[in-house]
Amino acid sequence: MKNSQLYELQPDPYDVTQRKFVRFCLFNDVKNAAELCQLLREQKIDAALIRSELVLEPFVLLAAANRAVHQSAHNRMSCRSLSAELIYSLSPSRNISDSLVTFGISENSTSIIAATFDDKSGSLMKKLAKKIKAKSVPFENLGKSSNVSLIKKVYQVGNPSFAPESLPDHIISRIVSKDFVS
Amino acid sequence: MSSDEEMDEGADCIASGFANSIDLASLKQGAEAKLTECVYLGRNAIVKERFQKSYRHPILDSRLNKARTKAELRGIMKAKDLGIQTPAIFFIDGEKNSIIMERIDGPTAKLWIETKRSEFSAEADNNRFQEIIRGFGVLLGEQIGKLHLGGLVHGDLTTSNILLRNSDENLLVFIDFGLSGQGKVTPEEKGVDLYVLERAIASTHINSEQIMIGVLEGYSKASQKQSLAVGKKLDEIRLRGRKRDMIG
Amino acid sequence: MSRNLEALKLYRNLLKYSKNLQFSDAFFVRRRIREEFEKNLEATEKRAEILIKWGQRSANKIGVGIIRNGEVLSNPRSTFHAPPGEGFRPTETAQHHKQQILRLVQEAIIQAKITNPAKEIDGIAYTKGPGMGAPLQIGAIVARTLCQAWSIPLIPVNHCVGHIEMGRLITGADNPVVLYVSGGNTQVISYSNRKYRIFGETIDIAVGNCLDRFARVLKLDNNPSPGYNIEQLAKNGQKLFDLPYAVKGMDISLSGILSQIEKNAPKLIENGEFSREDLCFSLQETVFAMLIEITERAMAHTGSQELLIVGGVGCNLRLQEMAAAMCSERGAHLFATDERFCIDNGAMIARAGELMLASGLKTEISKSTFTQRYRTDQVNVIWRD
User: Which residues contact C347 (CB under 8 A, 6 or more apart)?
Assistant: First the structure.
């Protein structure tokens, strides 16, 4: 589908016998967020709808997706669906419902990232796009709508002596280590 | 920006720049873990796997590998919170006790020191070399002081476990937190941490007493109070070391 | 000339010289020499041009060894066994050594078929340290006496270096990482720049000491050694008792493990949760895993592909098995020795002395001290490149 982007993941990195595909599409000027929320609640959408202002760059999204497909491949998911697991995987928190609320679409969202799994052809995304009243934009625009100060708050990187490493690295570290650190 | 036509074409292709690859020839077997260089979603990385050790009782082995993987992750994250540089963590496989983390571009402190030594190998340059390693020690000590002040002991401080990002001694990156401890950290534990470093330097680098002198100087910059208490313990621990040889 | 006349001459000389000894318990030496002589000694053959030393040990063992160009000609030893449930004490051990040493000297000389010590023996090596003071003193006194009697050089040897050099000799290991494990020492050693550098060691008690003390808790016999008896029990142990695992960088700590198992053992055995065998097994598995781990660290650090295990605990087959597994995982070679050379012995001191003498290291009688504390890395290893 136009403007959507396909990525390949290895649920167990470097085990090339396993592959998993994830497709992302960035939607701006979303007009029907409340409706989409309702559809999600009714489980009529098989995709992850993510608040794009909390996503800094594709690498963060992919690392979270890789975590999700890994958990799924080993039957260790914390959430009921892979889509929800992806949203949960973006969060530094281990509280599932808080994570879904924070990182998932909300009723007043105007910019979202849609993610579909096993959608190599793009047909799932095409179908989904019909339900979203918004403008899809090239995926390179991801990050333009992100809210850095909100991201810092959510990921608790307020420490003034914070090491001068890049913010995405810190975020990913936080995401993937949450099951082991807390 | 690409034209619409190209976008459509690209949409069915897998995005480039985010591939995985592994360089199996780079495998290094450390004492604890196997390290292999790799690329993870387009980023230079390293896989660290705490594999099963056949010499160890299986129960003990799995307990240790779990505990150390966890200690490593906790240590790395805690250090980040304290403003100490550690590698970014990209992926964790809790079952295989393997971690994919950022590959730091830069030499180990061990290599850096020995390179400096050969750069300043002339007799006349010795003073300069001593100044350099002492200065390095101060920077290192300051970072260790910060770690300790924040309630984190590394547990395995050696010049091989400290990297210099871009060969810059102001950008020290600490690695290998598998033996780290945190929580209520006593001056004794902090002292042991420094003692381990002192011993590692002594057995790795010749004529390098200045490093440790620098470390203790830098260490006191983080906190005078901590430095006094830990310094006292360090003296005790050193003395224990000498007394230990009482019986043959 | 008859053997007895030769011996008579030897002891007359000894008696004569021992009067002048500045640092010796001269009275004791003279009395013992007389007693030994009266018992008489037997020997047969004659042999010339031998490069020989002898030495003796510091803790509960005493031995005399004669070595020629790396060939062990004789190596008798004697061990002081404390009663079950007790450790050996310095004074009693020294007493034992006093009673044994001259007999051992004779035995060594006879076994090596030496008829004229003054001519055939090139030097006397003795243990300078580390060790318990009183037993070390016995060795030093007798060594001074003999080297004066025979007018040959005296060579003070570091006990640990003796182990390493003997191990290298016996196994043919070239430049190994050395795991030195005994009742009083636990060290991981690697050679560089004319020093045996200590990479890792215990920061409190030695591994042999840890095992011995647990043997005491279980009231195991001290014969042949408490560690050996633990090893035998451990073979039938199965259940792993969770003990603290204390690796601190390159070093290990054993006191926490010991106090944990000492505290819990009686209760655990009584309520049938763990057997004595299980506890010996658990102690060995935990402690040895720690040893092998820091050894592997040193090997990874130095890039060495050889491991040499020396010291009394090095005889333990489970430890050797674990070391072998670790080495094969790394593609490295394990060199271990059997109990003749693992355990403290005279020949190892002789071997180190032989190397030291060959590179001109000897000492004057007035400077022939002994010391309880003598770290392996204090020795200048000038005989190696």
Answer: C55, C63, C65, C66, C67, C72, C74, C75, C166, C341
Residue C19's pLDDT band, with cuts at 50, 70 and 90, is low
Looking at residue A26, its amino acid is L
Chain C residues in contact with B64 (beta carbon < 8 A): 245
Domain region containing B16: 10-102
Render pLDDT for C237-254 as a digit per residue (tens, 0 to 9).
Answer: 999 999 999 998 888 999
The better pLDDT of the pair A108, B13 is held by A108
- Rounded to the nearest 10 degrees, the angle between the axes of helix B209-222 and helix B126-149 is 40
* B41 vs A1, A59, A122: nearest CB: A59
Residue C275's SS3 state is coil
SS3 C286: helix
Look up the ipTM and state it: 0.94
Mutate to test the interface with B, among C93, C158, C245 (most CBs of B within 10 A): C245
The rounded distance, in Å, linking the Cα atoms of C99 and C94 is 9
Looking at residue A132, what DSSP letter applies? -
**CB proximity list for B216: less than 8 A, separation 6 or greater:** B137, B141, B194, B227, B231
Q: Which of C130, C197, C204 sits opposite B203 (nearest CB)?
A: C197
Catalytic site residue B12? no
Show me where the domains of chain C are located: 3-163+344-378, 183-342
d(CA C32, CA C41): 14
Phi and psi angles of residue B129, each rounded to the nearest 5 degrees, phi first: -60, -45
Q: How many domains does chain A have?
A: 1
Among B8, B12, B93, B156, which one carries the catalytic annotation? B156
Backbone torsions φ then ψ of C67, nearest 5 degrees: -135, 145
Q: Which residue of A has its CA nearest to B9?
A: A2
Q: Could you tell me which residues come within 8 angstroms of residue C186 by beta carbon, excluding any fewer than 6 positions away?
A: C180, C201, C202, C206, C207, C208, C252, C254, C291
Q: Vertex C218, ends C215 and C219: CA angle to 5°?
A: 80
- Counting as contact any 3 or more CB pairs under 8 A, the partners of A are B
CA distance C320 to C174: 19
B19 and B83 in one domain? yes
CB-hemisphere CA count at 13 Å for C249?
Answer: 29
Q: What is the pLDDT of residues A49-79, one digit of tens each?
A: 999 999 999 999 999 999 999 999 999 999 9
What's the mean pLDDT in B114-126?
A: 92
Which CATH number do you get for residue A157?
3.30.2380.10
